[in-house]
UniProtKB/TrEMBL annotation:
Binds 1 pyridoxal phosphate per subunit. Keywords: Amino-acid biosynthesis, Aminotransferase, Arginine biosynthesis, Cytoplasm, Pyridoxal phosphate, Transferase. The gene is argD. It comes from Vibrio renipiscarius. Homodimer. N(2)-acetyl-L-ornithine binds at R143, S282. Belongs to the class-III pyridoxal-phosphate-dependent aminotransferase family. ArgD subfamily. This is Acetylornithine aminotransferase. PANTHER family: AMINOTRANSFERASE CLASS III, SUCCINYLORNITHINE TRANSAMINASE.
Amino acid sequence: MMEEMKVQRGWFDEVMVPCYSPMEMIPVKGEGSRVWDQECNEYIDFAGGIAVSCLGHCHPAMVAALTEQGQKLWHLSNVMTNEPALRLAKKLTDLCFADKVFFANSGAEANEAALKLARRYSADVYGAEKSEIIAFKQGFHGRTFFTVTVGGQEAYSDGFGPKPGDITHLPYNDVEALRQHVSGRTCAIMMEPLQGEGGIIEPSDEFIQAVREVCQQHNALLIFDEVQTGNGRTGHFYAYQGLGITPDILSTAKSLGGGFPIGAMLTTNKLAEHLKVGTHGSTYGGNPLACAVAEAVVDVVSQPETLAGVAEREALFRQGLAKINDKYAIFSEIRGKGLLLGAALNEQWQGRARDVLVAAGEQGLMVLVAGPNVVRFTPSLVISHQDIAQGLEKLEKAIASLAQ
């Protein structure tokens, strides 16, 4: 048989739409928190596919679930239901405030469902004029036209023609601006309980309480986008559980499938009944393969020892980053919670987060950025202590090479 042609990085520039600019190396294999490229170079993975690979690469529980389901049933339309979807929905509702689940394929789709539900509910109950959606500057909610417009970064939504209307952006953590603006016309407030793409920004206690309060006062729904914070990432199964308030609607994806595409919108019985038959849908939403894998992920991540292990690993990261900082004075602060961490660069290092990412790659470490001034870490929730230590050593070497 003819030997297969080796895949070249140059093919990307020939055949892929240029909306991405991927690294030169091509990963071909992963195990745990390690990844190997075509040349057999080894990398430690502190990126986790942007908070997706919550159990690392090829976790045995996930491989077993996928293999088993792959022999049984791959797809059905939503004219029928299936066992993995029902089991997963039951588990998710047991683990949080929600009574009802809508399955989708991604965070953007889960957010699209959340926004459509909020608008539909408000129209049904209060009338068409109650339609304003409030979101926050620097927020990120996906790339569909509705979700990208609700997201608070105009660079992502400009240039595609007229945008969906009645969306207001306020500054995150500004209680005064929030109280002044919310009115009886407000249908929903959508927020990340910890801003991910916007720079790993935590909400103040006062702000998060105020958001819940103004929603109650004005009969507005509170939507939590937990696409990045959910499924154990912050050390709680969902981040709201560590904030002392409960949303009305929650979106989840990324870590939910541990690398298999799946998203879900979670809500209460009272709201769910407004998405009657025919009002919303998804061809692949609730797909048996995706739900089987997600069920395996949820089983592992929801274990108390997995969640406790997240805080333990967070401490190791914070200690290691502090040690690097003692030597190189590069970070102004370490932000975030659990294993959604951001190392903010100080005055001397402004705009160089991408330089750190590239230098880390050269040392065999995968990291992320959140804007030009924050190096972001979203590793596996079960990454070994040894991999954390070795990854931090590589990060230190990368920073040393830049500091020279």
